Amino acid sequence: MEYFDVLAFGAHPDDVEIGMAGTIAKFTKLGYKVAICDLTEAELSSNGDTSTRRKEAEAADKILGVSKRFNLSFSDRGLYLSEDSIKQVVSLIRMTKPSIVFSPYEFDRHPDHGNCTKIIEEAVFSSGIRKLNVNTSHEAHKVNHVFQYMINGFHRPNFIVNISETIQLKKEALEAYESQFTPGETGVSTPLTNDYVESVIAREKMIGKEVGISYGEGFMSKKPLLLNADWLF
Fold first, then answer.
1. Is residue 1 part of a domain?
2. pTM of the model
3. What is the rounded distance in angstroms from the CA atom of residue 167 to the CA atom of residue 215?
4. Distances, alpha carbon 124 to alpha carbons 88, 175, 201, 225, in Å
5. Measured between alpha carbons, how far is 202 from 30 in angstroms, rounded to an integer?
6. Tally of domains within the chain
7. What is the pLDDT of residues 67-85, one digit of tens each?
8. Domain span at residue 115?
């Protein structure tokens, strides 16, 4: 069975890349194994189709060095807390045994992003309950850390990862989703086709300036982070 250091969840293919592609590239360059799980195939997206989106996700994975990508095929705009959705995510967490789990920041203009995180939070907790049966042979697994990344908008993060050296890879990963971010001849205008990638890169530049670096990705944590004193110097 293949285990991963990091498991990043998104509601749709491209969510994870928007929020933390630079950090993923840093993880993989350091030799950590990263997997991404999209809860839906984004079948209701205004542009493109599921087949195209899968190919674009594969291209982004290669750019970032992602080891594995999962898709649970939940219904787009149908992400709600249910016993079934939680158990499916529990099963995946127990199978992949990540040390760190990421999901979207819960306050976002797209309801699917916040609902995705509600499912992930429940599943992370339930994954560690030994007596909870999800009809798989995988043992209970406790995740060490759970963090949230930003998709839409700007929020003051709890911590920032320096992605100055991987910002170009982030840009390339986003541009791999041509159907979403490039207005094609047969496409329709959406917030994503109106300089969206440029706005994401500009956000990361603004986040970086908060801590004196060129580019950064911001993350949220619901529990305090433990640091060694010498890290501060």
1. no
2. 0.95
3. 7
4. 11, 31, 30, 18
5. 26
6. 1
7. 999 999 999 999 999 999 9
8. 6-224
